[in-house]
Amino acid sequence: MKSIKNIILYGLFGAGLSMVTASCTSNLELTPTSEITVSGFWTSEDNANGALNGMYVRFRDQAADNLFLWGESRSGTLSYGLQASEGRERYFENTLDPNYAGPEWLRLYSIVHDANLIIKYVPEIPFTSEDDKNKLLAEAYTMRAYIYFTMAKTWGGVPLVITPTEGYDAETTFRERATVEDVFVQIKEDLNSALALYPDNSLSAGKATWSKPATNALKGEVFLWSAKRMEGGISDLEIALQALEEAEVSELVLQESYDDIFRYDNKGNSEILMAVHFRDLESGTNYNGNMYIRDDQIPSGADPEVLNKIGQGGGLNRWGPSAVVTAAFSEDDQRKEATYLSITIPSEGGTMEPYANVVTKFRGYVDPSGRRFLDDVVLYRYADLLLMIAEAKNALGQDPSEEINQVRERAYGDNYEANRFEDLGQAANDEAILQERLLELAFEGKRWWDLVRFDKAFELVPSLQGRENQQYLLLWPISLNTISLNSKIIQNPGYGN
Question: Coil, strand, or helix at residue 210?
Answer without folding.
Answer: coil
